[in-house]
Amino acid sequence: MSEDRFSWRTIVLPLLVLVVTIILWEVIIRVSGLEPYILPGPGEVARTMWQKKEALLGYTLRTGMVAVSGFAISVVLGVVVSLLFSQSAIIRQSGYPYAIFFQTVPIVAVAPLVIAICGYGALSVIVVTTMISLFPIITSTTTGLIAVDRGLLDLFRLNKASRWQILWKLQFPGAIRYLLTGMKTSAGLAVVGAIVGEFFAGHSSGHQGLGYFILVSQNQISTASLFAGTICSTLLGVVVFTSVTVLGRLFLRRWVWEG
Amino acid sequence: MSRYSIALMVGCLLMLATGCGSESADSPTAGGKTPEGLRKVQLALNWFPEAEHGGFYAAKLNGFYEEEGLDVEIIPGGPGSPVIQQVARGAVSFGVATADQVPLGRAQGANVVATFAAIDQSPRCFLVHEESGIKTLEELKNVTLAMSSGRAFSEYLKKHVPLTKVRIVPYDGSIAAFLRDKNFAQQAYEFSEPFLAKEEGANVRVLPIRAIGYNPYASLLITSDKLAKEDAELVAAMTQATRKGWQTYLNEPRKTNEHLQSLNPELTAGVLDFGAKAIRKLTIVDQPTFGQMTAERWKTLVDQLVEIELIPKDAVSADACFQETP
Amino acid sequence: MSAIQFRDIEKQFTPESVVVAIDRLEIPAGQFVSLVGPSGCGKSTLLRMVAGVDDPSRGEVTLSDSEHSQCAFVFQDANLIPWRTAQENVRLPLELRGPVTAEQRRTIDQAIEMVGLRKEDFRKFPRMLSGGMRMRVSLARAMVTQPNVLLLDEPFAALDDLLRNQLNEQLLELWYQQNWTSLFVTHNVPEAVFLSQRILVMHARPGRIVADLEVPFEYPRKPLLRNDPDFARFCGEVIAKLAGVTLV
């Protein structure tokens, strides 16, 4: 799987889709006569966003901080777990099914446990974020660590490389491009995780994020605010994803070459 | 029993956001007739079937709706059910809601109107442990308080009680955290959580929010302005039958409770029995005015919502929120 | 003195099938030997056993225990690490042996220059190099440890004739200088004849040596040798052995 080369198209085409979507949105509103409390128009949502811009920025930044923290922990933890998995088929085979646990566990079920251990507030939200964003890191990195080029492995064995050398000079660098793929999936999930985490544990006094805002808007039947919050969370997801991609291009080019 | 399971709500939000959570506005929910000549009508609940919906089910079970020529389909709700929105746009003819949602909806252009109030006194309350020594809401301090942010009652509490050293945390729908911690308080309904907490051995004290002046009606029958105007006969019939249903339920809840339990297996016979009795105390079922609402209380509610800035001043007229039971 | 000795070697991957069986084979130090034979005759397996990556199921392969005795391997494709530059790829075998000294760093640069890469190519990644250049880097990587045994597993098979001939000539030049004991596996008979002093013809199922031929041409060999009628005749002989084998 190779990604498209970066060019003006990678920016202009999505923007075009955005413009078309907004036009379509407006058209649907006008044609269908959907009431604004069901689907507010883009203008109304934009107005709401402008009116609440400072509050929304605060919420978004707080959620963003938590999402990025949880994401960073996922990356570190995911890589550590993958390294363990790569070192022993027995550990991998016994641990992998439980790694899937993180993917399928309903957060509703574990939220009380997380809160009981970590208390209400940012820490619990970060834990929930980590639980949601960890799995893609583990799967992709483990895959990368195991999928070693046979020829290169022969080369290392021929030179009497130690297991440690094979891990750090061959398996790990080779897995970086897989790790980056996992990180891109995980980046979006981290934002979702932070918002879901905030639903349960997040809005203790003064630390409210987008999850709180979305809940409140929903409780107050304020559909325009709900959309504004949703758009902010989407934008946050885009920012986190793009940052991962750009940082990947800047710092990991050696390991994540194109073509 | 979990009242607000938020993950489900996320799903509902998404459905709402994509506009496919409710049926098409022009579906003939109030028009069709069954072979027996009954008129088909849908009633959307605001939660999974439980004691606060007992009267609606009793009306159906005892044939009161049929007597009025109605074939009522009761649609159970859940977390985030957009009842107000669905009723306002006519996707369903009737719904069940709490009074504060009516002005909130109207402020957004979702014009719904209440025609019957089953529960006269608000069952909304807060639970504390007796060990905390807290006896009134004003004394609520030095505790962790779990409640849904942004809801009218929680905003009202924040505005009217100092809440010194009270840490407000999200409400996750369970009483697990409450049971663990003597310095924990949480939102609840009088007809449900107090029973569950006592069953688990907690010395629970119930602090109703109406004690500090916030007292919206509950278990309202609502319909859209449009239907109320265009088909007053249907609305009157529905209201009458619902009233009879509630009278029956509050006086003889056993049969209906068994039915509720079959619909919502998570409920125990104990909590339903307790719930029906607790609700009865909050109603005026023995009085001839049962189910009726007063302009004065609606005005108070609207003023309170304006005061806590959930609706703009003069955006909603209290008189438009309800209709006299015919 | 023999650099490599095979004694009653048998290699099986499953109990039923013997992949390669060699009773006795001795390769003197410094000799350039080519192994030719059909696919599946165990040529590569033989090489891997010498390198110590595969162990024989029976018998043993002995390398002369001179103090510097060590093997280097040149693989079928260049087998370079994609995230390392040419220079870093060549450095790898030394890195794996311990911290790289300043002197070794000079050896690395020399090795790259010797295989004919220019200075500006040192910092290029394999994907930026042509197939021939990649193979040169691979060769430099094999040389950098100063091995006394060089094992080449069809290194030039993927290259076009012109490039192959050119690299063959350069390989010989390097061999004159370094005097490795060379084991060269190939499908290409003229290549084997041009390069080696001795050709081992192998037969498949089970893999065994059926002919051991001395190549009657003097070193240094010039490119024009390939046009010599004697060269063609000798190639014919090898091909006949090979064909005979295949027809059996």
SS element count, helices of chain B: 13
CATH superfamily of the largest domain in chain C: P-loop containing nucleotide triphosphate hydrolases
Can you say what the CATH homologous superfamily of the largest domain in chain B is? Periplasmic binding protein-like II
Identify the CATH architecture of the largest domain in chain B.
3-Layer(aba) Sandwich
- Quickly name the level 1 CATH class of the largest domain in chain C: Alpha Beta
Mean pLDDT of chain B: 88
Shape of chain C: globular
The order of strands across the largest sheet of chain C is 5-6-7-3-8-9
Total helices of chain C: the number is: 7
**What is the terminal-to-terminal distance of chain C?**
35 Å
> What low-confidence regions of chain C span 5 or more consecutive residues with pLDDT below 50?
none
What is the CATH class designation of the largest domain in chain B?
Alpha Beta
What Rg of chain C is obtained from the alpha carbons, in whole angstroms? 18 Å
Structural class of chain C: alpha/beta
Please summarize the sheet with the most strands of chain B. Answer: 5 strands, mixed
What shape does the CA trace of chain B take?
globular
Give the assembly state of these chains.
heterotrimer
Largest sheet of chain C: 6 strands, mixed
Hey, roughly how much beta strand do the residues of chain B contain?
A: 15-25%
What fraction, in percent, of the residue positions of chain B are helical?
25-40%
